[in-house]
Amino acid sequence: MTQEIYLTGITTTGTPHIGNYVGAIRPSIAASKDPGKQNYYFLADFHALAKNEDPDLISQSTLEIAAAWLALGMDTKNSVFYRQSDIPEIPELTWILTSMTAKGLMNRAHSYKAAVQANIDSDNKDPDKGITMALYSYPILMAADILMFKATKVPVGRDQKQHVEMARDIAQRFNHHYGDILVLPEPVIDEHTAVLAGLDGRKMSKSYGNTIPLFAPEKAFRKLIMKIKTNSLEPGEPKEIEGSTLYEIYKAFATPEETAAVEKQYAEGIGWGVMKQQLFEYINDHVAPARQEYDRLIADPSLVEAELQKGAARAREVATPYMDQIRRAIGIRSLGAMS
Ligand code: TRP
């Protein structure tokens, strides 16, 4: 059996928060160290353009996300860690795939349909109001990310599953037309990864403004944890773990034994203030060493840049010859040369 190739992208539109950490960063970093796995991780900064038009935010987010992944121990020897925009073959492949993509397929993308629906719901005359071609063709760029490296497994959140399926459809159509060149990917959805609630109890997400940045300075970090919503039960009154954001976050970081101890404290009526302080201390201890490394990297972005350049060189060792093969197959060839 051929070896599986794992690939996943992170859109650079925000500051990494503890929800990203438990849901995506932590499992990816663990996988990056697995010598039995071939992994590609990249910063999807071209994708970020479809969501955000603030240049400083895009570059700051690229730095913060790269620094966070490196500080947390991403193994850049065993896996390839790079920035999408450093690989010119990706936009090149995007265009080639665009010519193999049915417009109707893009019409069916959930994210595009949701944007159209939002326009209809707010009685806009133009259902495509505010929708860029980047948003519309987003899945084709994503298909190029995946197909460029012959990825067979693509770990993503549920919301991205359809995009991976579209990459597969596009690859199939390409192969049908040009021969067996692209590798068909499969989405991998981990049903067990924790989804954290944010400060207000809704899912922790940048779009709700309820996040706790993973590497907020200690004081700010504590302040945010003190803001997490609880109910009004007094100290001494037994509390439910179900629906308790404090409990959920604790559990996402702690061992099963430590979690069981907190369950007991809940039953015994731990006060919310005490629980918050306990949660703060626990996570703070957990992230403090990486935070120090993160601060060092943020203060010297050239260190991060150097890592990304190394990653890009390795990625292009794969992308450049493969792109040559793809070009020849589609008839973009040096004249006079043999196919
Ligand atoms: N679209 C993905 C997201 O928003 C990020 C992404 C871009 C990606 N390219 C990818 C994920 C390729 C997996 C594979 O989460």
Largest sheet: 3 strands, parallel
Rounded average pLDDT: 95
Number of strands: 5
Q: Runs with pLDDT <50, length 5+? A: none
Overall form: globular
The secondary structure category is mainly alpha
* Secondary structure tally, helices: 13
Portion of residues in helices?
Answer: 40-55%
Could you give me the name of the CATH homologous superfamily of the largest domain? HUPs
Bound molecules: tryptophan
Observed structural traits:
single chain, Tyrosyl-Transfer RNA Synthetase, 2 domains, 339 residues, binds tryptophan, mainly alpha, globular, 7% strand, 55% helix, Rossmann fold, two-stranded parallel sheet, three-stranded parallel beta sheet
Summarize the structure.
The chain is mainly alpha-helical and 339 residues long.
Describe, in plain words, how this protein is organized in 3D.
The protein is mainly α. The chain has two domains: 5-194 and 301-330, HUPs (Rossmann fold, 3-Layer(aba) Sandwich); 215-297, Tyrosyl-Transfer RNA Synthetase (Orthogonal Bundle). Helices cover 55% and strands 7% of the residues. It contains 13 helices and five strands. It has helices at 18-32, 45-49, 55-71, 89-98, 103-107, 110-121, 133-147, 161-178, 218-226, 245-253, 256-267, 272-299, 301-330; strands at residues 5-11, 38-44, 80-83, 153-155, 186-188. Strands 1-2-3 form a three-stranded parallel sheet. Strands 4-5 form a two-stranded parallel ribbon. The protein starts with a strand and ends in a 9-residue tail after the last helix. The chain binds tryptophan.
